[in-house]
């Protein structure tokens, strides 16, 4: 449904056809289901599209939810949520992440559930086995300590600003915004007082890597998509965006699988994996520039603390696969 998903997966060899999901209107749904005529429909985590679910049930197409995650505050569990509860009844089975989700579904009479965990743990655990080499990152890091700031929003970049501007000489930053907004990136770079470069600037007209520019830069801004997962493999510390504002925390598991400490913003109450990793002391939440500077400063300045925190993140992934 979103470009961030479609653009990364549009060339996957797994599927015969990869398309955007049409908006959930009755006419769209009727046409789409007729064209796709699936033998099985699988929805993930929070994807509840009522018209699709009703049509799938009407067409007797088996429908599953995987990595399901439910919270008391959702409409399904409120007096006014009868329409959404009816949509849930279209699922043949719920594979949920935790016991709380299973128990909540039971309160509205849905017992066709299995606790199977979060499939993202298994996906990210395989990333280590892939070839994560990126030539430009080898040149950029050049032995320096690297902080990868992934899926950032303007609120995250504001929290990070002092840490970037006051960073030690041997520290480098990668900023990979969640949205590709050229004007926003220019505005952010204008606030940085150390040398920065964008991914779109690191190649010459003959497509050769501008090595000297990359080595001189202290901040690399990624103005393209599809590289972040591999870039995380170069990080010594990761800041994951989304929790400094209202957009929602992005995937902390992608950097955690590489065994690095995770730093996020303050708003992550809807993300159980972040809560659990924080309890284990593999993740730190910051709500201001000062707190961000303090936490990153400790992780940068204390290699033993950084190593131990990162090890907790890596073990967290390994302990939740399968």
Question: How would you characterize this protein structure?
Answer:
This protein is 41% helix and 15% strand. The chain is built from 15 helices and eleven strands. The chain has helices at 3-9, 26-36, 50-58, 82-88, 99-107, 119-125, 135-141, 154-165, 182-191, 211-216, 228-232, 253-256, 272-279, 289-301, 303-318, and strands at residues 41-44, 63-68, 93-96, 113-115, 145-152, 171-177, 196-198, 219-221, 237-240, 262-264, 283-285. The strands form two sheets. Strands 7-8-6-5-9-10-11 form a seven-stranded parallel beta sheet. Strands 1-2-3-4 form a four-stranded parallel beta sheet, with helices on one face. The longest helix has 16 residues, at 303-318. The radius of gyration is 22 Å and the shape is globular. It starts with a helix and ends with a helix. The model has no long low-confidence stretch (mean pLDDT 95).
Structure described in brief:
It contains 15 helices and eleven strands.
Overall, the morphology is: globular
Class per helix and strand makeup: alpha/beta
Q: Radius of gyration, Cα only, in angstroms? A: 22 Å
| Average predicted local confidence, pLDDT | 95
Number of helices: 15
Oligomer: single chain
Residue share in helix: 40-55%
Relative strand content? 5-15%
C-alpha end-to-end distance? 27 Å
How are the strands ordered across the major sheet?
Answer: 7-8-6-5-9-10-11
Q: What is the H/E order?
A: HHEHEHEHEHHEHEHEHEHEHEHEHH
The main sheet comes to: 7 strands, parallel
- Please report the total strand number as a whole number: 11
Name the poorly predicted regions. Answer: none
